[in-house]
Structures are given as structure tokens and as C-alpha cells.
Specification:
By secondary structure, the chain is an alpha+beta fold. The protein has helices spanning 9-16, 20-27, 53-64, 75-100, 104-117, 122-133, 141-147; strands at residues 30-34, 40-44, 51-52, 138-140, 159-161, 164-168. The strands form two sheets. It has a three-stranded antiparallel β-sheet with strand order 1-2-3. Strands 4-6-5 form a three-stranded antiparallel β-sheet.
Length: 174
């Protein structure tokens, strides 16, 4: 990615990411900032412009949710899902902390933005995916057997999602 890209390229690149591997690659070496007008923006040094955190989370949701249909994804996909979810979660936490330190004008702008984005509920859907469903930490029976060959599949699943038994990684004997 060239350093002299046009202003729209980071946003466009996020929009055009076709899979989680591409999105994970785009999110490497990025940072989040909270603007004066109350926006949460993610920027990448190789690009001149930033993209809205909610837009990135929405794109991530659109790429991750298809994997949850049958919970059948590779270890590489699991790595990318984990990287993306950890990165976006970290950015949400960071901007939540920074919000508390902002001046009154920024807080007002932020609240106005939240009123309009309330209908989209990207953050709520994102939190449901990463905290409740947690595809980065749960394994299907096949994934568990393949990943943790030295361990037997537990008798009871740790969670059930859409009639799929899910398991956490073993605590000993990896």
C-alpha cells in the first residue's frame, strides 16, 4: 500500500475487503482517535484518511457472521477473527475511556451522533457477537478435536449456539 494514496482509500479499502484475511491485514498498524465532533475514527499511517470505527465494526460483522452458520472455519480464519475482534474491542474500550475526559462540546456532539446511530445499533450487535457468541474463543466439536488432539472432547459443551455444541479450549494438557 503506497504512502501517497488518496484521501478515500482507507475507507474504500475497508469497504472492498472481501474476506477476514483482507480486513485483518488492513487493521494492522492502525490506531483510534476521538475527534472534537464526537466521532470515533480509525487511522492507518499508510493512508491519509481515517474510517469510522462503527463502519469497520459493521464490515467485520458482515464478514464474520457467515462463519457462524455452521461454525466451520480454519485455524487461520480463527486467528483472523480473533485479531479483528480484539482490535475492534480495544478501540471501543479506548474511545469509551477517552470520552470521559473530553470537553462538554465534544460530549454534546457525541450524544447527538449516538441519537442518529441508535437506529443502526452497530455497537450493540458487535458486543453481542464478541461477548455473547465469542467465535474467537469457542470451538466446534470438530475444531476442538483437530486443535487439541491430546485432549478428549468434554462430555458437556460449554455453550450451544444454533444447535451447535461449542467448547472452550482445555485449561491443561495442550
Amino acid at each position: 500500500m503506497a504512502k501517497n494514496m488518496t484521501v478515500e482509500n482507507f475507507k474504500t479499502s475497508i469497504d472492498r475487503a472481501k474476506n477476514i484475511s483482507e480486513l485483518a491485514s488492513l487493521l494492522k498498524d492502525t490506531e483510534v482517535k476521538f475527534t472534537f465532533l464526537g466521532a470515533k475514527k480509525v487511522s492507518k499511517k499508510a493512508f491519509n484518511q481515517s474510517a469510522a470505527l462503527d463502519k469497520i465494526a459493521s464490515k467485520a460483522l458482515s464478514l464474520i457472521i457467515p462463519f457462524l452458520k455452521d461454525w466451520n472455519f480454519s485455524l487461520q480464519d480463527r486467528h483472523h477473527i480473533s485479531f479483528i475482534t480484539n482490535k475492534i474491542n480495544k478501540y471501543y474500550e479506548k474511545t469509551d475511556r477517552r470520552f470521559k475526559k473530553r470537553n462538554i462540546f465534544t460530549k454534546i456532539f457525541y450524544l447527538i451522533r449516538n441519537i442518529f446511530s441508535w437506529f443502526l445499533q452497530t455497537r450493540k450487535i458487535w458486543d453481542t457477537l464478541t461477548l455473547d457468541i465469542a467465535p474467537a474463543i469457542y470451538y466446534s466439536a470438530n475444531q476442538y478435536i483437530e486443535t487439541f488432539r491430546r485432549n478428549q472432547l468434554p462430555r458437556r459443551s460449554d455453550k450451544i449456539y444454533k444447535n451447535i455444541n461449542l467448547y472452550l479450549k482445555p485449561t491443561i494438557g495442550l
